[in-house]
Amino acid sequence: MSAPDRKPPAQLAVRRLGIDTQSEPVVFLHRNNPVSHAEGFEAHNRVLLRAGSREAIATLFLVTDDILADDVAGLSEAAWRRLRLAPDGHVTITHPRPVDSMSLVRGRIYGHELAENSLHAIIRDIAEERYSNLEIGAFLTACAANPLVRDEVRALTRAMVDAGDRLSWNADIVADKHSVGGLPGNRTTLIVVPIMAALGFVMPKTSSRAITSPAGTADTMEVLAPVRLGAADIHRVVEREGGCIVWGGAVRLSPADDMLIRVERALDIDTEGQMIASVLSKKIAAGATHLVLDMPVGSTAKVRDAAAAKALTDGLLDVAAAFGIHAVVVTGAGDQPIGRGIGPALEARDVLAVLRNEAGAPENLRERALVLAGALIELCGGAPKGEGIALARAVLADGRAWAKMQRICLAQGAMCEPPVAPHRRPVTAARDGRLVTIDNRKLGKLAKLAGAPEAKVAGVDLHVRLGDRIAAGMPLCTVHAEAPGELDYALDYAAANEAMFEIVA
Amino acid sequence: MSAPDRKPPAQLAVRRLGIDTQSEPVVFLHRNNPVSHAEGFEAHNRVLLRAGSREAIATLFLVTDDILADDVAGLSEAAWRRLRLAPDGHVTITHPRPVDSMSLVRGRIYGHELAENSLHAIIRDIAEERYSNLEIGAFLTACAANPLVRDEVRALTRAMVDAGDRLSWNADIVADKHSVGGLPGNRTTLIVVPIMAALGFVMPKTSSRAITSPAGTADTMEVLAPVRLGAADIHRVVEREGGCIVWGGAVRLSPADDMLIRVERALDIDTEGQMIASVLSKKIAAGATHLVLDMPVGSTAKVRDAAAAKALTDGLLDVAAAFGIHAVVVTGAGDQPIGRGIGPALEARDVLAVLRNEAGAPENLRERALVLAGALIELCGGAPKGEGIALARAVLADGRAWAKMQRICLAQGAMCEPPVAPHRRPVTAARDGRLVTIDNRKLGKLAKLAGAPEAKVAGVDLHVRLGDRIAAGMPLCTVHAEAPGELDYALDYAAANEAMFEIVA
Questions:
Q1: Could you tell me the pTM of the whole model?
Q2: How far apart are CA A141 and CA A120, in angstroms?
Q3: For A200, left (φ over 0), alpha (ψ -120 to 50), or beta?
Q4: A317, A426, B317, B374: most buried, per Cβ within 10 A?
Q5: Secondary structure (DSSP) of A46-65
Q6: pLDDT greater than 60 at residue A7
Q7: Which residues pair with B433 in a beta bridge?
Q8: Is there a cis peptide before residue B453, judged by omega within 30 degrees of 0?
C-alpha cells in the first residue's frame, strides 16, 4: 500500500496544573490541539505520554474552554511527577501500545487458570502502570469470582516480588512481623522491633502508610522519627542498631501490591489468595527469613471468625514455606482497639508509655506486643518453646527495649515527642449500662474525619473497654483535631452513629 | 451522645470549566476549599453534588494551583449538564449515600445467583448513575466469570426495561429489527423500515449512535434527516407514516444498557447474557411485538462461528418468548462489509442508491435488506412462508419504499442529500493476487481515524470484494476526510496495517 512515512509525534510544551488526582495521571488538552486532532483522541482515551526516556499512561480530558491554550499539554500532579518534568519541558502524546497481558486477564475471567509466566506478564504491566483502575478491577474480580488456586497464589507472590526491588541482609536470621489488618491502634510493631533488636536479632521492618485507615505503622513511627529512608540508609541503621522501622514506599518492594490494594479497597472486595500474595511478597522482598503474623479475629476485624482464620493461616503458611520462610500465625481477640489512641500521635503516645514502663500504659497493647515478640523470639531460636514471652517481658521491663528504640530513632535521623492536638472534645454516653460492642470500622472513620492521618495530632482517644459499666454523660472517647471545623464534623458523625458504642442496660 | 446538630451543607458558587470527560462527572475543588476540608474529602473521592432537586455523583479532583479560586466548584461538562446549572448557580457537595446494591454485586462475585429484586436494585442504581465505572466493571466481570443463568438473564432484561421509559403503540403488530453488531456498513435498517411502512406495518425504529464503531444507524440516518426526536414527535411521525428511524437516546429506553456497554467495550469483554438483555431490553422498551434479528457470522464479526450463533440464538429466542415477543434470527455471512461506504455520509449514499434503484447500487446491501424485510414480513403475517422476500423486492423495485423513505424523512423534519468529503486519497494494493480476507475491525478503525462518526463525511469507500483479482497499484479503498491532517493520519495507519487486506498470489 502506498502512504506517507510515519512522522515523529509532535512535541508539546507542558503546564503543571496543580491538580491532585491521587495516583491517576491525567493530561488535559484543548479540543483544538493539533495532536489531539491528528491522533483521533477522544475524551477519556488512555494515552501514552513520553518525556525523554520516561513514560506514563494517562487519562485524557479535552478542554473546550480557554483555561488551557491550544498548544500545550496540562498535566495532573501524578503525571508531572512520573515524568519528572521541568517547567520548560515537553512531552509527546500518542496512542499507547495495547496491553497484551489484558488478554490473559480476559482468559482468567472466562475460567482459564493463569500459568506462572502469565501472572508475571500481568503483574509486570500493573507495576509499570499500564493498567487502568478499571482493568485492575477486572483482574481482581476475576480472582475473587473463581478463587486463585494454590499454584496461582505462589506464582502471583513470586511475580509480585520480581516486579520490584529486594533488600538483602548479611544475616542467617532476619526477623519480621506483619499484622493482617483491621484493628485500630495495634501499634505492636513499635514495641516488638526494639525488643528483638535489643536481643541481638536483625529486624529491618518496612511498613506502610494508611490507605483507608486512620494511621499506618509508618505514619505513627513518623511522629517519633523520620521514616522516608532509601535502601542505603536503611542498611546503615540496621547495621548499627539491628533494627529499623521505616516506610517501605521509598524502596519499591512489591510495587504492584499497592496498586492492587488501592482498587481492592475501592471495590471493598478482598480475596484470600490476593491477601496472601500481598503480605508475603512484601516480606520476601524485604529479605525476611522468620516471620510472625498477627491475626486479630472479630466481627468488625478483617478476619471475622475462627474458620476464616484457619483457612487464611493454612494458605499463608503454605506459601511462606514454598519460599523458605519460617512463619507462625498468632491469632488474638479482634473485637476492640488495641491501645487507647487512634491516629498517629495518639498511637505513638501509647507506644512510648509502654516502652517507658509508665504506670498508666495501655495493658492490652503491652501484652499483645509481648505475645508477638515471644512467639518471634521462639521462632528465631532465642528461647525454648513457651519461654519467649518471659524474655521479651524482661527486655521491656529493664529498659533495654526503650533504650534501643531511642537509638533506632536517632539512627533514622531524630527522636521526637508526640505533639498534642489543640482542639479536643469528648463524646459522651447517652445512657447508663454496660458497653457490649465497639464498631472498629466506625471508630476508624471517626478518627479519619477528625483529620488523621494527614493531621498527625488528629484522632480518637478511647476511654472505655468492652465490659465497662457506663454512666450517662460519661466520656466514651475524646476526639482530637487540628482545626475546629474538623472537630465539629467528626462530632456530627459521632452523633449520627451512636451504634458505634453499644451500651446495654 | 452529645454533639452539635448537623449543619446544612454549605453552598458553593459554580464555574463551568469546559472540560470534556465523556460521561464521567468531575468536580474540581481547591485544596483550601472549606467544604473539602470540613467533609474530609480526598482526591478521587466520589462526592454527591446537589443543585435544587438535581443530583450527580462525581469524582473529586483537588487543585493546589491558582487555576481555581478556593471558594468555587469547577465542573466538567458532564457534571454541568446533569445538574442543568446556570452560570450563577450553586451546588452543595457532600459524601454520597453508600450504594447498598454493591453488596449484592459482591455477593455475585462470590458466587451467589442474583434474584429478580437484586438485579432490579443494581440496575436502578446503575441507571441513576450511582456506580463508578470501576464498580460497573466488577459487576460485568462477575457476570462473565460465572455466566448469568437463564433466570438471571430474564430478570436482568426486565430490570433494564423497568429502569427506563417505554413507548407504546396503538397497534397489534409493532415490527422491529436489530443487528447483532460487528460489521461495518450494514445499514439495512434504512431500507427495511420504509419497505415495512410502505406495506402498512407499524415500525417505529429507535437506533443508537456509534460507541466504538465508525457509525451507528442513528449517525447515518442523521445525514438524511433529523433523528433527535422526543416521544411526542416520534408518535406523530409514526402515526402519519407508519415508521420512523430516530435516535433512541432522546427517549431513555433502557438507559443502564448504555452505561454497561461503555464499560464492556473499555474492558473488551462481552457476555452472552449481557448481550441478550441489552438487545431485548431496548426492543421491549420500544414496544416491539415482532422482531427480526440480523446476525452476521464471521471471524472478525461479533459472532465468530456457527456454534456461537446457535447458542446466542437460543438465548435470544428464549428471553424474547418470555416477554411475548415473536422473534426470528437471520444469520448471514459476516466476513466483509455490507455496502461500500463506511462512515455516516458514505453509508447514507449507499442506502439512497438502493432505495432509488440506481444501476450501481451495492447489491449485497440490497439483497441483505430484502432477506431481512422478507423474514419480517412473514413473521408479521404479511406473506406466506417463503414469499416475503418477493413482496419486499416488489415494494423496493416499484419505488414505494423510496417514496415512503422521503415522507419519513420529511416527517422527521427534513430530507437532505449526503455531502462529499473535500479530502480523499486511495489506499492501493502493493501486489498482484486475489483478495482472500478483509479485517473488518481494522477497516472500522481506519474510518474512525479519518474522522468518522464526528465528521459525517469521513470514512472509507471500499472498491473491492472478497475473491476479486487484484493488480498492484490498484485502489482497494478511498479514505475520505474533512481535514488533511486526519487524512494523513488514517493513511499512515493503513500503511502500517497492510494485513487489513490479505492478497494471496
A1: 0.86
A2: 18
A3: left
A4: B374
A5: EEEEEETTEEEEEEEEEE-S
A6: no
A7: B470
A8: yes
Say if A102 is an interface residue toward chain B (CB within 8 Å): yes
8 A C-beta contact, residue A496 and residue A449? no
Of residues B65, B109, B489, nearest to A144 (C-beta)? B109
Report in angstroms the alpha-carbon separations of A418 from A247, A347, B57, B223. 18, 9, 39, 70
Angle, helices A388-397/A189-198, rounded to nearest 10 degrees: 90
> A243-247 and A203-207: which strand pairing?
parallel
Residues 6+ apart with CB under 8 A from A136: A126, A259, A260, A263
3-state secondary structure B274-292: HHHHHHHHHHHHCCCCEEE
Which residues 24-43 of chain A have a CB within 8 Å of chain B?
Answer: 24, 26, 28, 31, 34, 37-40, 42-43
Angle in degrees, CA A233, A235, A240, rounded to 5: 100
Query: Length of chain B, please?
Result: 505
**Residue A8 in contact with partner chain B when CB distance is under 8 A:** no
Chain A closest-CA separation from residue B195 CA (Å):
37
Q: Write out pLDDT tens, residues B350-368.
A: 999 999 999 999 999 999 9
The whole-number average pLDDT for the span A319-337 is: 95
**pLDDT tens digits for B397-408?**
999 999 999 999
- Please name every residue paired with A60 in a beta bridge, in sequence order, or none if there are none: A27
% helix / strand / coil in chain B, to the nearest 5? 40, 20, 35
Please tell me if residue A65 touches chain B, with a CB cutoff of 8 Å.
yes
- The 10s digit of each residue's pLDDT in B205-259 is 999 888 778 999 999 999 999 999 999 999 999 999 999 999 998 888 999 998 8
Q: Please tell me the distance from the alpha carbon of residue B96 to that of residue B74, in angstroms, as a whole number.
A: 18
When scoring A141, A428, A443, A463 by the number of chain B Cβ atoms within 10 A, the one with the most, hence best to mutate, is A141
Reported in sequence order, the residue ranges of B84-127 that DSSP labels E, i.e. its strands, are 90-94
Q: Quick one: pLDDT band at residue A5, thresholds 50, 70, 90? A: very low
Q: pLDDT tens, A266-316? A: 888 888 899 999 999 999 999 999 999 999 998 878 898 999 999 999 999
- In 3D, which of B210, B197, B369 has the Cα closest to residue B292? B369
